[in-house]
C-alpha cells in the first residue's frame, strides 16, 4: 500500500470525495506493477511458509522488489543502498541460521504455527487496518505535496556549485546535512559494538557449560545426544571447497577496489562511503562462510573491526573540525583541489572515507560476533 501512490501518480481530492484516476506513464509503471506484485507475493510467502530458509529468501526477494521500485523512480542511490542492505541482511540471516541446531529450528517452526483461528483473524484484521490507514495517508501525502519550488530545488541548484557534487544525494549527505550523517554513523558504530557485547556476553555466561559439554563430546560415548545437538557447530558455517575458496580469495580484493571507487567518485555517481563499507563487509562475510572463523582471522590479520570504527569516527571529527581552523564553520566544505582521473580532493572524499571505515568496521564486528561469538577478540 505504501508504494501504490508512487506507481499510479494519482490526481484526486481525498477529503472532498474526488475520484482516484490512475495515470500510466509507460513501461516504467508496468515494471512498477510487476515489482509491486512480486513484493506482495514474497511478503505473503514469508508469512505462510513453515521453513526458515525459504522465508529468508522470500524476505530477500521482497527487498529486491522494493529496490526495483526505487530504481525506476529513478532513485539510483537509494536503490543501490536497498540492494546492498537486502543482500547483507540475507547473508546475516543465513549465517545465524547455521548457528542454530536443526532440532531447535524444528521446535521454533512448530510453535510459530500453533495459533488459534481467533488469534489469526485478530492479527489479519489489525494488520489490514493498519496497512489501509497508512496507504490512505500515503495517497493523501502524494496528492497534496507541493511542486518542485521548495528546498529540494535549492539542493539541485547548489549541490554542484557549492560543494562540487553533481550527485545531489552525496552533497546532502556529506555537507548540507552532514551533521545528521555524522551522528548516524556514530550511532551505527555504537550499535555494532552493542551487538558484539550482547553476543559475547551470552557466550561468556554460557561458556563454562559449553566447554564442559564439548569435553564430554570428545571423551564420552553415552552423552545425551539431544543436549549435544543444541551446541553451536563451528563447522556448520563452512562451505569450503577449492572453487569457493578461490572465489572468496578473488572477491575480497575486487570488493575493496569497488569500495574505493565508491569513495572516490561518490560525489559524481551513485554510491558513497556507506555502500563502500557494505560491499567490503559482504566480501568479509563470504570469507567467514567459506574459510570459517579461525582461518579468516588468521588470514585477515589486518582486520581489526573495533579499531576501524574508532578511526572512522575520529577521522569524521577531524574532517568536521578542519574548517574551524580555516575561519569557517564546523562541517564546512574545504578543499576542491584537482587530482588526476577527474578527481578532486576535498572534505567530501575524507568524509566518505570516514563513513567507509565506520560502516566496514561495524559490519566486520557484527560478522565476527555472529560467526564465532565464543572467540570474539577484545576491542
Verbal overview:
The protein is mainly alpha-helical and 379 residues long. Helices cover 73% and strands 2% of the residues. It is built from 14 helices and two strands, in the order H-H-H-H-H-H-H-H-H-H-H-H-H-E-E-H. A two-stranded antiparallel sheet has the order 1-2. Helix 13 (305-325) packs antiparallel against helix 14 (347-371). The protein is globular, with a radius of gyration of 24 Å. The two termini are 44 Å apart. Mean pLDDT is 76; it is low at 1-19, 202-224, 226-237 and 375-379.
Descriptive key words:
single chain, 379 residues, mainly alpha, 14 helices, disordered N terminus, disordered C terminus
List the helices and strands and how they pair.
Elements: H1 4-8, H2 27-48, H3 52-72, H4 76-98, H5 102-112, H6 117-144, H7 151-163, H8 168-176, H9 178-219, H10 225-229, H11 242-264, H12 273-299, H13 305-325, E1 335-339, E2 343-346, H14 347-371
Antiparallel strand pairs: 1-2
Amino acid at each position: 500500500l505504501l508504494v501504490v501512490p508512487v506507481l499510479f501518480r494519482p490526481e484526486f481530492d481525498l477529503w472532498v470525495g474526488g475520484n482516484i484516476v490512475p495515470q500510466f506513464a509507460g513501461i516504467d509503471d508496468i515494471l512498477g506493477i510487476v515489482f509491486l506484485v512480486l513484493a506482495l507475493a514474497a511478503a505473503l510467502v514469508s508469512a505462510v511458509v513453515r521453513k526458515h530458509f525459504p522465508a529468508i529468501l522470500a524476505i530477500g526477494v521482497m527487498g529486491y522488489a522494493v529496490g526495483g521500485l526505487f530504481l525506476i523512480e529513478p532513485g539510483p542511490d537509494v536503490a543501490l543502498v536497498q540492494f546492498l542492505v537486502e543482500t547483507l541482511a540475507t547473508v546475516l540471516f543465513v549465517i545465524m541460521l547455521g548457528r542454530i541446531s536443526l532440532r531447535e529450528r524444528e521446535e521454533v517452526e512448530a510453535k510459530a504455527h500453533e495459533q488459534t483461528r481467533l488469534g489469526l483473524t485478530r492479527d489479519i484484521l489489525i494488520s489490514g487496518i493498519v496497512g489501509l490507514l497508512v496507504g490512505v495517508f500515503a495517497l493523501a501525502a502524494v496528492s497534496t505535496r507541493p511542486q518542485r519550488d521548495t528546498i529540494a530545488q535549492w539542493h539541485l541548484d547548489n549541490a554542484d556549485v557549492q560543494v562540487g557534487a553533481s550527485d545531489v544525494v552525496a552533497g546532502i549527505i556529506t555537507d548540507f546535512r552532514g551533521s545528521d550523517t555524522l551522528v548516524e554513523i556514530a550511532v551505527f558504530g555504537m550499535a555494532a559494538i552493542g551487538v558484539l557485547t550482547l553476543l559475547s556476553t551470552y557466550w561468556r555466561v554460557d561458556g563454562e557449560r559449553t566447554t564442559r559439554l564439548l569435553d564430554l563430546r570428545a571423551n564420552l560415548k553415552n552423552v545425551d545426544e539431544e543436549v549435544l545437538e543444541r551446541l553451536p557447530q563451528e563447522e556448520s558455517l563452512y562451505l569450503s571447497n577449492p572453487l569457493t575458496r578461490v572465489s572468496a580469495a578473488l572477491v575480497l580484493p575486487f570488493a575493496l577496489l569497488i569500495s574505493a571507487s565508491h569513495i572516490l567518485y561518490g560525489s559524481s555517481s551513485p554510491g558513497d562511503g556507506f555502500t563502500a563499507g557494505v560491499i567490503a563487509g559482504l566480501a568479509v562475510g563470504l570469507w567467514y562462510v567459506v574459510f570459517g572463523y579461525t582461518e579468516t582471522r588468521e588470514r585477515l590479520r589486518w582486520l581489526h573491526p573495533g579499531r576501524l570504527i574508532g578511526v572512522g569516527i575520529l577521522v569524521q571529527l577531524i574532517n568536521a573540525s578542519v574548517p574551524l581552523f580555516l575561519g569557517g564553520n564546523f562541517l564546512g566544505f574545504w578543499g576542491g583541489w584537482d587530482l588526476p582521473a577527474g578527481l578532486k580532493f576535498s572534505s567530501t572524499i575524507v568524509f566518505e572515507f570516514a563513513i567507509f571505515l565506520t560502516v566496514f568496521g561495524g559490519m566486520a564486528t557484527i560478522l565476527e560476533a555472529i560467526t564465532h561469538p565464543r572467540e570474539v577478540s577484545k576491542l
